Predict the structure of FeS cluster assembly scaffold protein NifU, Clostridium type.
Amino acid sequence: MYSEKVMDHFSNPRNVGEIEDANGVGQVGNAKCGDIMKMYLKIEDNIIVDAKFKTFGCGAAVATSSMATELVKGKTVEEAMKITNKAVAEALDGLPPAKMHCSNLAEEAIAAALEDYRRKNGQAPDESVDCNGCCNSCYHSHGREEDFDDED
């Protein structure tokens, strides 16, 4: 059902936690399944030098979060904005169709964290991000931090 890579990233997730001095933070959720994903990015000179995540959800949500942080590290902001849910799923050697929404969340978490970074740095929003409100990726920028409790 799950690839070895999915199982590895679920059992041994990379980059779990938060970055205290993150300059880009994005949180997304899926109301249907209850998964919540929060991504922290540390960006220096337009390069993502660190990425961490906190995820409340199923094994596929943890695996896609882990892989997403691996995929963005070392990339420019512009390169990271181009990472798609398909790229996340492919990097994990695929996901079952019923779990593809987890890769959508990973893509949306990256985009939300990058939009937060852009907003904090006085940059115009990325017009290529088509927000129709379905992914709730604007939790952080609208002050809805209570939707994800950082307390362990």
